[in-house]
Amino acid sequence: MLERGLNQINRLALKHVGRRWMDYIVSNTMTDLNRRVNGFLWTYELKALVVDIRSEADGVKTFTLLPNQHWKHMQAGQHVEVSAQINGETVSRFYSLSPMQRGRFTITVKRKDGGLLSNWLHDHVRQGATLTLHHPEGQFTYRQQPKVLFVCAGSGITPCYSIVSDLLQGKSAPDMALYAQFARKADTIFAKDLAQWKTRFDVRVAYSHEAHEPGQLLHTSSLLEQYPDLLERDVYLCGPQGFMDQVIAMLTQAGYDLSRLHCERFVAQSFEQAPDETFDPVGAEVYFQHIDAHVCLNEADRGRTLMEIADSRKLNLEVGCRQGMCGTCKLTLKSGQASGNVLGHAVYLCTAYPASRKLVLDT
Asked: How many Å apart are CA 326 and CA 310, to the nearest integer?
């Protein structure tokens, strides 16, 4: 009862006082007592109150979260790191954010076999609970292209859903098309929204483990056959590694400009983490175009990732999980080659290595 009343007070305070003023009030009244009584507002950490939980599909739940006064800003398509203490260990995972509505956003979590945090969220988190977050990050965001195609599979729909939802709320949306693939109809995430979207733009939903119309699945016909204007569109891609590899191969076969491909993923992949030993990096040059920084590699750079190379020169690059998962450090390959964690033209700096005499990277 006390916790429920305190949560109601917190919600009213954020609604009527506002985050900016609450930040001012809390920062000037911070005491150990206040922190013990109300650890949601009187804290230095970004936290969120779980205000609603709904079932989205088999093994999938959507959590509606109300962040405290430390929340700043987000862009549709970005993700947030959620942390929890599980069996005495801090476990963190990344989840896409829906656009903010009434000061709230949602994360959609698919239960995974052996997934520590996903299973904990499904089994133990109830309405009224508090989650610890980190600030939004990621570059899988819409960049004002006039024609876009979203291609996703499974829970990979979540960042695409965020971007599309945001665009549909605006005064004018670009020319959009969306392809979403799931194993079965029962696995369809955001089924109600997808059905509504079909009345507004080209939305196609396919099921890999159920009977389907010929040509409905991507692998049963070429991308150009399904989307004749493919080469005019920027492609946003997210899904399991095998699915993304398949789509990238189809794009390459179609002669698509992979610099217009935008990829996202939240789990570490089984890529080769060692640099290509046949490549001698000494004397090679890496150009980080977005910060106009040229780096000439030397003997000390042997075996270093691109992020370690940048760190050694004290370059100001965005850094995330450093495990090749979150995509915060991801840059686009403009020319040259990189090895390791590379997906199309997306290079994950923390787990990728230079592999050509000149390498140009940009946002």
From this structure: 18
What is the model's pTM? 0.81
Residue 362 to residues 291, 331, 334, 349, Cα–Cα distance (Å): 8, 6, 7, 11
Per the CB < 8 A criterion, the answer to whether 361 and 334 are in contact is yes
Name residues whose C-beta falls within 8 Å of residue 271's C-beta, 6 or more positions apart in sequence.
324, 340, 341, 342, 351
| Same domain membership, residue 239 and residue 188 | yes
| CA–CA separation, 10 and 167 (whole Å) | 31
Is it the case that residue 280 has pLDDT exceeding 60? Answer: yes
Express the helix, strand and coil content of the chain in percent, nearest 5 each.
30, 30, 40
Percent of the chain at pLDDT > 90 equals 54
Longest dimension (CA), the chain: 67
Within 13 A of 124's CA, how many CA atoms are on the CB side?
12
Residue 55 tokens, joined: 């079932």
- Listed residue (158, 293, 303, 145) closest to 229, CA to CA: 145
Phi, psi of 95 (to 5 degrees): -135, 140
118 and 170 share a domain?
no
Q: How many domains does the chain have?
A: 3
Question: CB 259: neighbour CB atoms within 10 A?
Answer: 14
